[in-house]
Fold each of these.
Amino acid sequence: MEFEPVIGLEVHVQLNTRSKIFCGCSTTFKAEPNTQTCPVCLGLPGVLPVLNEEALRKAIMAGLALDATVAGYSKFDRKNYFYPDLPKAYQISQYDKPICSGGFIEVTTSAGTKKIGITRLHLEEDAGKSIHSDEAGNRVSYLNFNRTGVPLAEIVSEPDIRSADEAYEYLQNLKTIMKYLDVSDCNMEEGSLRCDVNISLREKGVEKFGEKVEVKNLNSFKAVKTAIEYEIRRQADILEDGGRIVQETRLWDADRGLSFSMRSKEEAHDYRYFPDPDLPPIKPDPDYIARIRESIPELPEPRKERFVSEYGLSPYDAGVLTSARPLAEYFESTVKHGAIAKKASNWIQSELLARIDNPEHIGSFSVTPAMLAGLLGLIENNTISGKIAKSVFEEMIASGAEAQSIVRDKGLTQVTDTAAIESIIDRVIADNPESVADFKNGKERALKFLMGQAMKESRGKANPQIVNELLLKKLQ
């Protein structure tokens, strides 16, 4: 039997507001446990939640960027279930009237380009965190309620994904868009971006979906991809052996590379949803939505297309430069300061990115776009060679000095005087008769050797193009 995977993703994006969604408690990460709580987020009797307008604004912005429709009427509901780290024994979420619906994310894999539909984007509060001790003789669980009430935007995809590669690309693109918007830092290690996967198999050519399984505890994009591949194999083996798939929730064990059953999968009726009586419905004014739409920055895909058309970059180079908003802005600022776009692109990708841990942090890099443009200008007007430019760049990073002053103070200006270069070449030819003979016998490597000797003799200062031209002329 040949099976087709049907995959849907539920992604929780933590919105980077300074306070929680229904109270004024801080959302700062790594604070002392249980120091960022109040009667509202702990659900004590008699308290009233109040919606954080900034969380609403960021959720709407995220929806608009995904080409979703913002609802003219949405509401909050109580999702009832008991976990030790859910102090109210219910979660304030949105059930049948989410803030945004529809939209898509475009993905490109080896199978081609396609649109993955989005079912909905809704607002909800996060739960707390359970920490379990595995110490012998001290098997206890601790509860930290600091995260309780942190605002989340849950983005649910349509079951349009057909491979682990498509799921991986979907998540990468979603993360890039959220970071471009500055609605979330999307730090998976800190829980700012979390993903659950729903997977089912069906025979190829059959329209009806198979029984779906949800996989949780996926803390990296690599884990998502690996878990999907594992679950496809597991379900296929069961079906081929004549068994049936049980609808359930499974946990992913990254160390062992397998999933295991956690519980039977809940249905919506299990949560006993009902409208939250303490929160009024949301009816966003069209002008309010329009102002949010106008504040959306140029998104990665349109920016990539513009970099190709406006700067003549390849789609690959444009994709690298637009992978992070600060990186794209650094490149454009370098070009605005006079650098040739292709040269700036090459230098940023080959030299600059090799020296920073994260393109998101390029704004704090010691070499500013104006300084980089100055360095590239010195290469372009033949003041220094590309080789010397690399050592100058290292000095710029270490000292924060301008390229021009480093070149001047260290006497690194490129030699373009043909008489001086001819003198160097004459010495090299005289000192290396065997290599000269090899060149005349058709050995091309000999030319590279002689070229290297000439550059070494000039301490890297001679203009390589002039050296090459004069050396060939004399050898011929």
Note: The longest strand covers residues 112-125.
Amino acid sequence: MTIRNPHRLNSHSLLNIAVVGHTNTGKTSLIRTMLRSTEFGVIEDAAGTTRHVEQATISADNEPVLNLYDTPGLEDSRALFAHIKKLQAKSRLLLPAQVLEQFATRIAINDPLEQEAKVIRQVLRSDILLYVIDVREPFLEKYRLELDILTQSAKPIIPVFNFIAGHQAELAKWRQHLAAFNMHATLEFDTVVFSFEAEKRLYQKIQTLVESHYTSLQKLIDCRAKLWHQLCVSGAKRITELIVNVACYRESKAIHKNLITDSLVEDRLHNFVRKAEQKCLHDLLAIFNFSEKDVAIQKIPVSNGQWQLDIFAPGILKAYGLDVGSAAAKGAAAGAGIDLMVGGMSLGAASALGALAGAGWSTFKRYGDEIKATVKGAKWQCADEVTLQILYLRQKLLLKKLMHRGHAAQETVQVDKADSEKLPDNWSKLISALRQNPAWQEPSIIRNGNPQYQEIETKLVESLFDES
């Protein structure tokens, strides 16, 4: 969908958008968020990070739609304004845009305003301007001068309010100031706290200002909406696959107690759960095009791909709002026995032989391993329900964080508490059904086509989007 720095595309046939603004307002951040990529450009706290115009192309169904141009920051708007005023005084017959063209083409190399000339040059070559504003900054004279200069280009301008989270009062003041420039078609687009609806509104506003590109932009909007939905569903299904994988897993365990053997069984079970969660973490980050440095659990960063707050760590139950008495201090156990049913009877040691006698071939084929294990004096051990709850709640919160994280965000995601998240309705019944179908642990045509499995998957996926 995205092509960065293309060299052979005919830019004249595409919509050309210049991203402009003062230094360090988040221009590169905006493009990163629109590209869904952390790789475009360089983002630093220091001023003037972008020194040259950089291009990226956004496509819909592999068809290029628009070019984005990341421009250097306007650092000395006062000197630029004064210089242009002098040019206008000398060339009174020229239109304002022609004066800007004269400035951009005649500026000398190594001139103090060379960087500003790069910006003006790209502005004049573009169809529309996105003027990025850091609302945390007060409306100073430099911004007034920048807007005065940019409006002389005779290009449509959309002011984009960045870093708006928690700054509603400042945002209101900016709106008042821009109204004085007759700029009312503004947009709130936080590049840190991402909202797909904000991105959609951006393209819709562009549509209203460049009618000739309306159709191609609508195709882009529809394509992005479809892809975003697919992205979120993929994340939810990956979490569902984790729950299924762990719920269906079991270890055989001798009925006669043996501390060493029991410890080995527990270790194998714990390691399986840990590895399953690690793989889910990696896959979720890959789906949303993030990396491990973007995530922190309990305010401790992920290190070498490992969740630092272990799922079996003491106190984790309280962190996830699960109050199970004394177990909360110990952490999840992942050591519950499985209550399997055959013909309505429990497969306990006392009833196993009776179940064998009354079971048909189809029943034996399904529960044969359980029946044979019981007869031999063994039982199955699986992840307990509390462990599965923590897995589900932790991944649900992570999914929500990733869905609302801009690709320009520098802070690590904090997945420290999930006590506000909810489990699906009939959670225990869903888990019980999974435990009774160990063959569902791995994807297969038979599993995926099973109506009961499809119903369980749908309920788990839908619950993951609750309040997302």
Note: The chain has two domains: 2-209, 238-335+383-464.
Amino acid sequence: MRRTRNAKIVATLGPASSSKDTVRQLFLAGVDVFRLNFSHGSADDHRARFATLRELEQETGRPIGILADLQGPKLRVGTFANGPVMLIEGQPFRLDLDATPGNAERAGMPHPEIFAALVPGAELLLDDGRLRLVVETCGPEFAQTRVLVGGKLSERKGVNVPGVVLPLTALTAKDRRDLALALELGADWIALSFVQRPEDVLEARELIGNRAAIVSKLEKPSAIERLDEIVALSDAVMVARGDLGVELPAERVPAIQKRIVRTCRRLGKPVIVATQMLESMVDSPVPTRAEASDVATAIYDGADAVMLSAESASGKHPIEAVEMMNRIIEEVESDPLYRQLIDASHTSARPGGDVAEAVCCAMRRAVGLLQAAAIVCYTSSGHTSLRAARERPEAPVLSLTPNIDTARRLALVWGIHSVHIHDVDDVRQMTTIACEIARREGFAEVGQTIVAIAGMPFGTPGTTNLMRIATV
């Protein structure tokens, strides 16, 4: 079950990929973490998918990560009395709290938080930015706007307010119900949608505690303004380019994506690049060349994972999409330029770092000098393996842990191959088990060198302080 690549694949389950056989094929094709989108599907749907994934995990003996993606405060216009309306450039258009079905002159928008934050001159983007309005006058219950870019507007279309920090929590009442279900079922990662500020992550942390790890989805310009703070508080980050590309000019998104990836690399936090990566494969069995280049760019930049959304959830070719993404990653990682770029983007250790940083820095140098076949990390919390992955070493990282929750979470992290084992008592036993598992899992052959790192005393989180070099 060993992957022949370092970057990971996240795939969304949905109507096209809910059967046990399809889920199994997706896993065998290369999926490392499965995403359950709580914007869609019932509680029973999610329960069934959780059960399928845990059965597959037992069958394959390979820890599988599950990411529960919460909907977040999605803002929408209300309904229309006679179907879609046509907005003409320059015409006035009123938005208000009135729930009465709208027409070509007004529409309801049941979000008082938006009206509280609006000021004259603010822009509103409707239907993924296809229509643009500018606020001329506003109050706590209305906004009188003028149409800048017109078009057809259907009911329940999304509303974006670029450049405005809305007084909204990242967790709606629906999100709290979905979060409770996800934690009950045992989700490994919880994705927070529309994070605007560090306080959103802290609010979620109070509810989640240590029961799951948090992925902050960066899709609001206000989040980019406080990027370092949000990344530092998160366990991982997702570059959610959909809404980010609505609220910001499209030409700015590539640079922001690279900035987010660099920040995560520097702070040692896993980063997922998502949205429309192989979008044409929703209908086509092959991607466009531009999409293949998009996936490749994320890998060259050093992203931990790339994600499929509609391609695997509702597309016609979910297996082929995963296989294609797998091949693109393998091709990039076999390119000599890839290793040069990864090494060039490495954040060097600075004086004043901690012991774990020193051990992992030494590990990376030792692996390069000795041409070691594998790195073996013993970890209970995942801290040691995360530090090792941050170094982006040349050898694969075999992560051994007695904690199945840790093993599942690390399925998202670059270069990590997780194995659930029993506790280790001493260094001699650690070395013996490291050599046995490295050989069993296909990472090393007899006579090859491995580098093992761990924390002493064993089982104590955050104590990475030991490196041992051994011959299989």
Note: The chain has a mean pLDDT of 93.
Amino acid sequence: MLDLVGLTVGASVGTILNPTWVTPSVFLLIGLLGAFLLRLVGVLVLAMTIIVELVVMQLATWTRIEPGTLIVIGVSLVALVMFAAQREGLGLQGAPGELMLVDLRDRLAAYGRVPALPSGWRVDTAVRSAHAEAFSGDFMVAARGERGQLLEIVLVDVSGKGQEAGVRSLLLSGAFGGLLGAMPREEFLTAANRYLLEQAWDEGFATAVHVAVRLDTGQFWISTAGHPPAVHLHAGSGSQEILDTLGGPALGVIRGLSFLTHVGSMDHGDTLVLYTDGIVEAPGYDLDMGIDKLMGVVERVVATGRGDAEAVMAGVQASESDDRALVLVHRD
């Protein structure tokens, strides 16, 4: 902080001695640096120092500063103090706070990594946040259980979008990652619903699709909670089946939920398609139309072996105003 205060003193001297090269706007740059590098108290001290120096120079007539310039600097300093107060309220203090956000984003990405799979199985994923923000309300968690023979994946769409939803995604991904594989597959969504209710968030619901696949036989189980239905691409016939599980409401809404399970089997060449509503929803269009469009892209891209989840995401061309996530589970 002392270094920045020293800069303000140097800026004052420069403004007095050579106002052509050192203009009062340099104080805005110093204030901006302080807002990112200092805690709230330091930003307040720096702002008050700048105001005192400007007032003294004006009253002593050492230099002439236009009233409009003084007003702009004053309003800007108030805005920077409010910015610093908001960051401190979030626990982001100074430059290390930015590193913490990066760490949180990396942790969220780490939770979505798929464990190593045996030969003959692949999982492709694609996640996009609304307006390309750093955090997404859609996330995936995967785990292997039953001595490595059972792959479990849960794809979750947290209410909201952007950074606010991203914080809840981080909390839920850690909790769901602990639940996944630690209990019988048929109890996962019930336990996830109970955990979400215990958080008592004002806007804390989430939709989810949970799939468990036997890696030795190809048998799978799918359950949904307020989530769009999964799609099963059958390689043998080239047909696509919508796996309507008639799931219960979203997680975190009511207690005592039970979830129906669709049981199926993946043959060699088959693909399971999991996705969030951002992939298939668009203003003015029916959800079924969005699902039909997705299935058309899957037929062109996946069934023909021309691309992966990223290619399907690009082909759907969903709106960037919502978070989007897509998971493809392949059996080669």
Note: The first strand starts at residue 121 and ends at 128.
